[in-house]
Amino acid sequence: MIRIDCAWLAVQPLDMRAGTDTALGRVVQVFGAAHPHHAYLFANRRANRMKVLVHDGIGIWLAARRLNEGKFVWPAPGFNRHHQLSTEQLNALVLGLPWQRLGIDGIITVV
User: What is the pTM assigned to this prediction?
Assistant: First the structure.
């Protein structure tokens, strides 16, 4: 339904009361701009809620997801303000799975 060519994860938590305009403002602050067909993901401090903002080229979509048990695997705030995710990593993150183990970061080179 919505084309997503690139997904970005913001490290700093977002207040889940934030609406579309506030979330869009945070995207511009953290990523510099909201690019068409890019998804921007934010979590709350406890990482049990997530908001995803997508610019579809015409307008803005804002979706929310809450886990009833557990929490999303989210990087701790530190040097990096954001991470780019592959499609597989995005799919795993939305399900609450450890997305860091997929893709280039999950390669095993020595046994």
Answer: 0.85
